[in-house]
């Protein structure tokens, strides 16, 4: 805006800004209104083409690829109807696979043997494998023999590899001790069944590996226990048989081992001793075995395992030995 003051022409641009802004706003409104009016005039096909053109104009974006990826990720229906999904004969299409069967947690190993015999009798031409993963635990008995008992790795489950159909499925279900297959429920509200679900080969390989590792661990623990027991017995025998000074050995043995009493007196003493109960801290005498007629102090008594820990004074030192309770009697002080 120009003003004439004292012969000077003054220019003020601030006065024109509101008019310019108003013109710009009105222009924008008129353009947007035209676009909206034009979109209303377009058909649905033309609007879709316009939207696709805008998508393609963006760099690095392809809406066709996005739609194709969504269609690929969408799972396809395996069965045409729900009745076809309930048909167990369709399980045979995949060939031989591993299946999991529920059994008793206590008698799982016996059930696996019964199942194998039943399948071999009813389907002699069928190839199958029954696998009950177990660790063979070794235990040494009192008489020196070794007992081996299986300890299941997965209690309550056994694995079978075969071509499964409805006939074989029903035959396995009827075996005594079998509780059914592990799977998932299929169907609808009208009818539902528990359809068996196969196990992947990779999972079975992991199960084989776990069973092998546990078996090696159990064998190593048994071997270590055997070696420790042998070393303890050898050390005790060496301590009893040899010493640096022979005179000390004879004297210590003479002090520890009492003189034999007459037979009648010994029998009377034993009958009196049996009446007296064993107790920790009491003095006991060994009746038979390596330490027969030795007298020692009862340190610990375990009636469940029928074992007692007795301390003997050998070569001036106390040695602890584990002896059967039946070989001990309380020593009666005369």
UniProtKB/TrEMBL annotation:
The keyword Amino-acid biosynthesis does not apply. Residues 233-270 are annotated as: Disordered. InterPro entries: NGN-like_dom, NGN_dom_sf, NusG-like, Rib_uL2_dom2, Translation_prot_SH3-like_sf. Residues 240-250 have a biased composition (Polar residues). Residues 95-211 form the NusG-like N-terminal domain. CDD domains: KOW_NusG, NGN_plant. Signal peptide: none annotated. Keywords: Transcription, Transcription antitermination, Transcription regulation. Gene3D superfamilies: 2.30.30.30, NusG, N-terminal domain (3.30.70.940). This is NusG-like N-terminal domain-containing protein. It comes from Brassica cretica.
């Amino acid at each position: 805006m120009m003003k004439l003051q004292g012969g000077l022409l003054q220019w003020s641009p601030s006065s024109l800004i509101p008019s310019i802004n108003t013109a710009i706003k009105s222009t924008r409104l008129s353009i947007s209104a035209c676009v909206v009016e034009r979109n209303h005039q377009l058909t649905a096909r033309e609007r879709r083409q316009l939207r696709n053109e805008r998508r393609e104009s963006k760099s690095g974006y392809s809406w066709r690829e996005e739609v194709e990826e969504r269609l690929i990720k969408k799972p396809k229906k395996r069965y045409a109807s729900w009745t076809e999904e309930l048909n167990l004969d369709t399980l045979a299409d995949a060939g031989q696979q591993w299946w999991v069967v529920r059994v008793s947690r206590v008698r799982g190993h016996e059930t696996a043997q019964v199942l194998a015999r039943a399948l071999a009798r009813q389907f002699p031409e069928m190839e199958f494998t029954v696998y009950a993963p177990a660790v063979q635990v070794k235990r040494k008995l009192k008489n020196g023999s070794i007992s081996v008992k299986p300890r299941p790795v997965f209690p309550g489950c056994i694995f079978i590899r075969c071509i499964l159909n409805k006939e074989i499925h029903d035959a396995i279900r009827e075996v005594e001790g079998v509780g059914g297959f592990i799977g998932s429920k299929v169907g609808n509200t009208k009818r539902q069944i528990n359809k068996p679900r196969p196990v992947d080969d990779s999972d079975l390989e992991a199960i084989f590996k776990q069973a092998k590792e546990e078996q090696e661990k159990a064998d190593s623990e048994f071997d270590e226990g055997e070696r420790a027991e042998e070393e303890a017995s050898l050390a005790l025998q060496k301590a009893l048989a040899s010493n640096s000074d022979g005179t000390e050995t004879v004297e210590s043995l003479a002090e520890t081992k009492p003189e034999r009493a007459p037979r009648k007196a010994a029998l009377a003493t034993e009958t009196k001793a049996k009446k007296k109960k064993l107790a920790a801290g009491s003095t006991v005498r060994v009746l038979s075995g390596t330490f027969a007629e030795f007298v020692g102090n009862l340190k610990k008594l375990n009636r469940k395992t029928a074992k007692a820990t007795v301390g003997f004074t050998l070569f001036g030192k106390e040695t602890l030995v584990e002896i059967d309770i039946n070989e001990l009697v309380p020593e009666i002080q005369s």
